[in-house]
Amino acid sequence: MKKIGFILFCFALFLSIIGCSNQPEESPMLEGDSIYEETEQSHIDIEVQGQEKPKFEESASMDSALSLEFSESYTDESIVITPPNREGIENMYFKGYGTNPFISTEDDTLSTFAIDVDTGSYTVARNYIERGALPPSEAVRVEEFINYFKTDLEAPKNKSFTIQVDGGESPFGEGYKLMRIAIKGEEIENDNRKPANLVFVIDVSGSMNQENRLGLVKKSLYLLVDQLKDNDRVGIIVYGSTARTILAPTSVEDKHRILEAIDQLESSGSTNAEEGLVMGYEMVSEYFQKNAVNRVILCSDGVANVGETGAEGILGEIKRYARNDITLSTFGFGMGNYNDVLMEQLANHGDGNYAYIDSFSEARRIFTEELTGTLQTIAKDAKIQVEFDPNKVDRYRLIGYENRDVRDEDFRNDTVDGGEIGAGHTVTALYEIKVKDNELDDLGYIRLRFNDVKMEDVVEISNSLSIQNELNRELKFQAAVAEFAEILRQSYWAKESTLMEVLELAEQNAVGEKQLQFVSLVKDAIAIQSYEH
Fold first, then answer.
1. What is the pLDDT of residues 189-222, one digit of tens each?
2. Cα dihedral across residues 150, 154, 160, 162: positive or negative
3. Pairing of the two strands 78-80 and 34-35
4. Strand 419-422 relative to strand 377-388, pairing
5. Three-state DSSP class for 522?
6. CATH number of 103-188+378-532: 3.40.1080.10, 3.90.25.10, 2.60.40.1230, 2.40.280.10?
7. Burial class, 266, CB count within 10 angstroms (exposed 0-12 / middle 13-18 / buried 19+)
8. How many other C-beta atoms lie within 10 A of the C-beta of residue 259?
9. Number of H helices and number of E strands within the chain?
10. What are the residues facing 400 on neighbouring strands?
11. Beta-carbon neighbour count of residue 94 at 10 Å?
12. What is 190-375's CATH number?
């Protein structure tokens, strides 16, 4: 019996060893990444009185609360999301930037931040919900939800920007006003835009073979090339374990040759994003054109596991190229192994825009409907400074833009990086404010400072702050979008709100295809929330 028992023990041990050796290899993590852990963020002590928004005993300055240094892009707050069922979504890399607090005007009358038109956070969240899961709170950047839906503001004539300020009673904060600052850039017809010198840097590593990511990249680039003009040029760099040139810059007059090169893309190998970007920038530099759009366009899932994999190594030279008018736009693809942090920060520091492409329809929107704005920048280093009158405004809170905070004293420091705005783009910023004595007019000023590309000079324009008693239809819809994002990111300021309230407001005010699709998205989120709880 002892021999039989010993034999059975050995057999069981052998099976356990075999089982361990067959465990799947974990996906490589980027330098500095950590597994997601729920943490409570507390900015300042608060006191809740009735149904009113929380009041602060000590107000924290937004300038010191959330300043972003690029070298700190990967910290312990970068996370990997692993849903309980492990189906469809494996390793997703995000970074939380906290939530802006209310600021007392007695402590600080100025609110300063850089603006951009990124929309990647909204489409990432949409992809989660369409797959039957709510996005992690760290994936939600409220301003990118709001800016996904353009305002109806009329484009300016004979100037770069129009500024509109409006607002009214907040639908989600009793006793508070919602104020909107909307900025619309000059529109440029595609036929009148500058020639484009583009280099596509395409991730063809093994991870891009998942979910037909590379297939969607190809279709997206087909759309883009089809919209280009004969005086545009396209070069193509691909990277897996190493980077290589598959198409030297070629005139779009030879469109067939460009499309043929795209069609032959196949995925294999590891992911050396650094080498791909270096080669892309070198190619644009070699063929640099004055009075043209000189841009690198990165298509990737953002994961890097060969060469420099941390933010500092990959992005060390990008700012230098941006100062020399070579910009970078990033387009993200894929779920299951996607790095939102890197893709968003690459675009921020490369003076370009970031979008996440989750479908052919989204690719069509970016590369056909918004092509000129995607390619041609009209303003660089754009910053907003809002100054509230402390005699009329008691406190305020900027909704979103946490990772775009700028120190008040750096508003007119033109060496400090701001955001970039393309032709025809709109940018929206929402504030919740508490006014004194029901004041509505002349609440302060908004100043927009930017480097005007056409004038090749720094320009500053301003407008007064005045609101109304009631929100218009469009602003009511944007309020629903903002509150939806606030709920998804588990903001303290939305803890009394519900998705059903968001749905009711959105349904009452949605018009057009995109807004009605948002209504459906909220319904899906409600259904997910019901079975998750």
1. 988 999 999 999 999 998 898 888 999 999 999 9
2. negative
3. parallel
4. antiparallel
5. helix
6. 2.60.40.1230
7. exposed
8. 16
9. 15, 22
10. none
11. 25
12. 3.40.50.410
Where along the chain do the CATH 2.60.40.1230 domains lie?
103-188+378-532
Report d(CA 162, CA 160) in Å as an integer.
7
Tell me if residue 382 falls in helix, strand or coil.
Answer: strand
Helix (H) or strand (E) holding 8: helix 2-21
Q: What is the enclosing helix (H) or strand (E) of 296?
A: strand 293-300
Give residue 132's region: left, alpha or beta (phi > 0; psi -120 to 50).
left
Q: Report the distance separating Cα 203 and Cα 240, nearest Å.
A: 6
Residues 277-336: tens digit of each pLDDT: 999 999 999 999 999 999 999 999 987 665 554 556 567 678 889 889 999 999 999 887
Beta strands in 186-283 (DSSP E): 196-203, 233-239, 243-251
Place of tokens 């918004």: 370
How far, in Å, CA of 132 to CA of 528, rounded?
6
Quick one: DSSP state of residue 337? E
The amino acid sitting at 141 is R
Residues of each domain in the chain carrying CATH 3.40.50.410? 190-375
Residue 415: Cβ-neighbour burial (10 angstroms; 0-12, 13-18, 19+): exposed
Residue type, 124: V
Q: Which amino acid is at 95?
A: K
Question: Token digits for 28?
Answer: 């490589």
Q: Measure the CA–CA gap between 199 and 292, rounded to whole angstroms.
A: 13
Tokens of 107: 């402590």
| CB 353, CB 116: distance < 8 Å | yes
* Residue whose token pair is 């997206």: 220
